[in-house]
Specification:
With 506 residues, the chain is α+β, with helices and mostly antiparallel strands. It is globular and about 60 Å long.
Length: 506
């Protein structure tokens, strides 16, 4: 009898915790439905996420600025509105987090950059406006690298974000705070941006899902740049996109953010998807390596096993690579970064900086043109090369429903300190190990992502397995430009054949 009473008491104590964990790792789509159906209140959901942040953020350092008072107030207002029959939108009362380089009105926005430590913008980024208009509640800002310029989330204001599977390892960058917050149940939905893999890499390293939209489909107005810059110079390549724990939430997020606003009418409308997609009707191109950049053997094996599952399920799979000169693609990507990101840096200063990165230039083709002196002629040449590579990729995608390849040459690696810095750009002389071979840090982390930035393709980053060390292994699923919603539907089909796992705190 005494044992029965103890068991009953323990069960009663753990029911609230179990219920909270169920909410914490629910999809944003499910949470939105439960709030609308009055199964849970927005206030209780928002409170649960703040409790999770209070409990675990000290360990993982994913959320760097909280919006607690305003978020709880807004959650109460959401519940009152619902009681009156008012529904604000698709995310009515749902908590979300925002990467700390999107301007958020009255909420600190630092971009991980010391001069912006106490910066509180007086306006919201366009993506933030769209989310708030659909009823989303911002509970906090997530960590990143300095000015989003590195493949790890680490900066002198807030320090490094730890990987949810192993705190000695990186979460990836620059949207690493978003990915870790999702994988630790601190948020159901988060929003980052990507120019070199900043959504795709953290998603792969943390075992969550990330989406890089087609270029020009989602507004980038309101990115917080270096105050010395009059405007954001990245007018090509960079995109804004969502991260989540499932593809349904990515689709929901894209339905909200992929639209024009009064401040940004230049966006390209996406093709709506009405297809019924079956695995047996899909033709998938795939590779486990390209451009001569080695990939960890375990990643390659897991990709091969995954492709085998797709083939057994009836998909047509072809091991093939687009006929892209990847070395040229990498260099051209770097040309745009150098010309646009460094538009306010004189050629003389760039010339003076060349000796500082001499070693990097030899090993990393995507950075060979980043700090080199430039000209209008070089810019025109880069644009023509990009046009040609886009044409090759789009013709290739006419033959396939999707193209699958690695996200990174490695799984999440130990926190990796730069050797030195050139302005806000980190220089690494210590390589990463790939199959016991030394590979430059930036080749290991950017070689597989940057070509599909240059091609302006939509890319889904999704987990397919865990390594023997219990680290997530992800893939890129690449689609045809402006067919983002069809790619997400394809991803939902492909996701059925990936290995499923629980997150460390789930």
């Amino acid at each position: 009898m005494r044992l029965f009473i103890k068991t009953l008491f323990f069960t009663l104590l753990t029911i609230p915790l179990m219920a909270q964990n169920n909410i914490l790792f629910e999809s944003a789509t499910a949470i939105a439905a439960k709030i609308r159906n009055k199964e849970v209140t927005s206030y209780d959901v928002v409170s649960a996420y703040f409790e999770q942040i209070d409990k675990y953020n000290q360990t993982y350092n994913a959320v760097v600025t909280l919006n607690k008072t305003e978020a709880l107030k807004r959650a109460k207002e959401a519940d009152i509105a619902l009681s009156k029959g008012e529904i604000w939108g698709k995310l009515h009362g749902v908590p979300i987090t925002i990467k700390d380089n999107y301007k958020t009105k009255g909420i600190r926005t630092t971009s991980g950059y010391k001069p912006l430590t106490n910066n509180a913008p007086d306006t919201d980024a366009e993506i933030v406006k769209l989310l708030i208009a659909e009823g989303a509640i911002i509970i906090g800002k997530t960590n990143l690298s300095v000015l989003a310029l590195d493949m790890q989330a680490d900066n002198p204001i807030f320090g490094k974000t730890n990987n949810p599977w192993d705190t000695t390892k990186t979460s990836g960058g620059s949207s690493g705070g978003c990915a870790t917050a999702l994988a630790t149940g601190m948020t159901p939905l988060s929003f980052g941006n990507d120019v070199a893999g900043s959504i795709r890499l953290p998603a792969a390293y943390c075992g969550i899902y990330g989406f890089k939209p087609s270029f020009g489909a989602v507004s980038l107005h309101g990115i917080q740049t270096d105050p010395k810059e009059k405007v954001n110079g990245l007018k090509t390549l960079a995109v804004a996109g969502p991260l989540a724990r499932n593809i349904d939430d990515l689709e929901l997020a894209m339905s909200i953010i992929a639209q024009t606003t009064t401040e940004d009418r230049r966006l390209t409308p996406l093709v709506k998807n009405t297809d019924t997609i079956a695995i047996k009707n899909l033709k998938i191109g795939w590779t486990d390596e390209f451009g001569g950049v080695p990939v960890d053997n375990e990643i390659k094996l897991k990709i091969q096993e995954y492709i085998s599952k797709l083939e057994k399920a009836g998909a047509t799979v072809v091991k093939v690579t687009p006929e892209i000169d990847f070395n040229l693609a990498w260099k051209t990507w770097g040309s745009f970064i150098g010309m646009q990101g460094g538009y306010n840096t004189s050629n003389f200063v760039k010339w003076m900086g060349l000796p500082f990165i001499k070693g990097v230039l030899k090993e990393v083709p995507m950075h060979q043109n980043v700090v080199k002196p430039t000209s209008v002629e070089k810019y025109m040449i880069a644009m023509n090369i990009q046009d040609s590579i886009i044409n090759i990729m789009e013709n290739f995608m006419n033959e396939y429903d999707a193209f699958i390849c690695p996200v990174s040459a490695v799984t999440a690696f130990n926190h990796h300190a730069p050797s030195k810095s050139f302005g806000s750009f980190s220089i690494y002389n210590t390589p990463l190990k790939v199959n016991n071979e030394d590979i430059h840090y930036y080749m290991a982390t950017q070689a597989y992502t940057t070509p599909f930035t240059l091609t302006e393709s939509p890319v889904l980053s999704m987990p397919i397995s865990l390594s023997k060390d219990s680290l997530p292994i992800g893939i890129q699923v690449i689609g045809k430009r402006y067919s983002d919603f069809r790619l997400l539907k394809i991803g939902m089909v492909l996701d059925d054949y990936a290995e499923k796992f629980k997150y460390p705190l789930e």
